[in-house]
Structure formats: structure tokens, C-alpha cells
Amino acid sequence: YTYLPKQLSISPAAKYLHITTNETIAGTQWHALPYDCGVPLIADMSSDILSRQLDFNQFDLIYASAQKNLGAAGVNLVVVNQHLLGKVSRKIPTILDYRKHIEAESMLNTPPVFAIYVVLLMLRWVKNKGGIAPLEKMNMAKADLMYRTLDSLPIFQLSVAEEDRSLMNAVFTIDHKELEKEFLSVCTQHGIVGIKGHRSVGGFRISMYNALSLESVKAITDLMIDFANKKG
């Protein structure tokens, strides 16, 4: 997907609307969220939780796995509006019943202590940074630098609509496969790794989560400019 729908046709009979606020494979992100969809709004925020300011009161349920901005893999954050609890009339496994988790204070089964501790450390780090507002400002600066660089260099192709580009994941390609291999090799030589795109789309994916500094983004954009000047 290279863009997000600007108009949604939601059936009044729908039980809920589920969105993924940031899609890491294609590099799309909801910037104008569908708060007025007319049905309960449920969001997977696994890859952009804590990256920007949102009105969480507008959501009926959000969930996020931790391994992007929140901590280490193995723990999930769930925030649910009380009015949703108990609406499932059919029998469901206890492990999937949020009421049971709430009653057990999130210790329905053995808690992943290390993963929870890392979340604590990350939340302290966010607080020490001044909260979400300064992190959002930094994330916007990182994304602006990345996309301005990509837009200025014809050797790199961006397919996502400009208004839907992700602040967390810049996804792009190079027309020639040999040049893609060469660019990847150059990045590796400079200590920049983990930028290959998802296997379903190929190309490259630069992830700019909270922990990545503006200086790190500048390092790869400088490398892009140098590579484009030599190969473009």
C-alpha cells in the first residue's frame, strides 16, 4: 500500500474499526486519525507508541508490542475503555479475556519480568527526555531530513504518498538491483546495518524509532548524497 484512504465507508453495523497507526512494511502512517468513524476505534500502535502526541481518549482500545519504542520483545501494552469489557458473549479462552488480566493485575500467568523492567527503564528515559512532546519534535526533524534527502536524489524512489509517509519507517528503492546491492554494501562498510526492506517489498527501510538520534540519520543521509553523486 502506498497511501491511506481519505474517506472511510464504515457500516453502522460494524462492531469496531481496527487500524494500524504505523505500518512498518510499506512505510505508511495515519496522521489524520479516523476519530469520527462512528464505531469503537481500536488501534495497533506497536511501532509508533510514545513517538507523538495523540488524544488517547478518542480510542476505545489500543495495544502495542514493546520492541520498537516501549522496550524489549515479550511484553505488550493494552489500554482498554471499560465500556468494552464484558461485551463478548461467547466463551473465549481466559488468556484472551482482558477482564481476567485486569483482575489478576497483569499477572494471570508468569510475568516476563525482564521485559517489564526494560519498559520501566524506557518510560524513565522518556520522562527524562521531557516526555512525548520533545520526542515528537525530534522524530519530525529526523523524518524531515530523511525525506528531503530522498526527494532530492533521483537515484532513490519513494512510492508512499507524501502526506502518508511514516515518521518511523522510510521505505524506498533503487531502480537497479546491482546499485541496491552496492548501496547496501557501502552502508555496511560504514557500520550502518539492518536497513534492508521487508522481504515482501524489497528495497530499503530506514527505521527512525525514538532511540535513533538525529546525528545517526544525518550520517546515513550524508552517505546517500555521496553515493548519489558518484552513481546518479
Give a structural overview.
Helix 4 (177-189) packs across helix 5 (214-231). The chain is α/β, with parallel strands linked by helices and 232 residues long. Strands 1-4-5-6 form a 4-stranded mixed β-sheet, with no helix packed on it. It has a 3-stranded antiparallel β-sheet with strand order 7-8-9. Strands 2-3 form a two-stranded antiparallel sheet. It has 5 helices and 9 strands; from the N terminus they run ββββββαααββαβα. 32% of the residues lie in helices and 15% in strands. It has 2 domains: 17-128, Type I PLP-dependent aspartate aminotransferase-like (Major domain) (Aspartate Aminotransferase, domain 2), CATH 3.40.640; 132-231, Aspartate Aminotransferase, domain 1.
* Total number of domains: 2
What summary fits the major beta sheet?
Answer: 4 strands, mixed
Helix percentage: 25-40%
Please tally the helical runs, counting DSSP H or I stretches of 4 or more residues.
Answer: 5
CATH architecture of the largest domain: 3-Layer(aba) Sandwich
Residue runs with pLDDT of under 50 for 5 or more positions: none
* Beta-strand content estimate: 5-15%
Could you tell me the CATH topology label of the largest domain: Aspartate Aminotransferase, domain 2
**How do the SSEs run, as a string of H and E?**
EEEEEEHHHEEHEH
Output the CATH homologous superfamily of the largest domain. Type I PLP-dependent aspartate aminotransferase-like (Major domain)
Mean pLDDT: 95
Structural class: alpha/beta
Shape, principal axes of CA atoms: globular
Distance between the termini: 27 Å
Give me the Rg, rounded: 20 Å
Number of strands: 9
